[in-house]
Design brief:
mainly alpha, 12 helices, 79% helix
């Protein structure tokens, strides 16, 4: 099969038969073990599909399928997200990213995927419950993730949920912040929450900070 691909690929590239070239690139991709090469070929094949009578659904299916297998890159995600918006397929994209998590190579990539999921759930799908779950996953994976903590605090504050947990988050943010104005805001929030929960010791410590 690889020999046939090697023979046909330059011929299809020179022709205007985009459909055949796309099928050949997918076949070539499916015989690759190297994830970086596979990712590059996936992006190229999806691009050819879009040139071939704007086959958006086929291109999205290819991209989201590779994401679900853990073959992640910022370029694949960006292309899949663009198509998901056009096709009203944001939820299927989220499902693919959820499926990818066990197969991802590193913690940093998993954090990137979780951040993308949070943005999709919170900003596009307006799904507060799933957004909160993803934020908790981010903080569990990286307890000092400042953006994750800020977003979780904003979510809990907006929904008036769990003041004791929110107090702990603000304490972490105040402890790790290097911005004086930001730190003062966190301390004010700690005072208010400590007063609300009856935690006089924490309130006193915040007032004396």
């Amino acid at each position: 099969i690889e020999t046939a691909i090697d023979i046909l690929e330059p011929l299809y590239r020179q022709s205007e038969e985009k459909g055949r070239l796309a099928r050949l690139l997918v076949a070539k991709m499916n015989h690759m073990d190297n994830s970086l090469d596979r990712i590059q070929l996936t992006i190229e094949a999806a691009g050819v599909m879009l040139e071939d009578e704007n086959r958006q659904e086929d291109a999205f299916s290819l991209l989201s399928g590779e994401l679900a297998r853990g073959n992640y890159s910022e370029d694949i995600l960006a292309m899949a997200r663009m198509l998901a918006m056009d096709l009203d397929s944001v939820q299927p994209l989220c499902s693919s990213l959820e499926q990818a998590r066990p197969y991802l190579d590193s913690e940093s990539i998993e954090l990137d995927v979780l951040q993308a999921l949070y943005e999709l759930y919170a900003q596009i799908l307006d799904n507060d419950q799933r957004a909160e779950t993803v934020l908790r996953d981010i903080v569990q994976l990286d307890p000092d993730n400042v953006e994750g903590l800020k977003n979780l605090a904003e979510h809990l504050s907006r929904n008036n949920e769990n003041p004791a947990e929110l107090l702990e988050i603000y304490q972490t943010l105040a402890r790790t912040s290097h911005n004086a104005e930001e730190k003062r805001e966190y301390l004010r929030a700690i005072v208010d929450l400590a007063s609300m929960t009856g935690d006089g010791e924490t309130e006193l410590m915040a007032l004396s900070s």
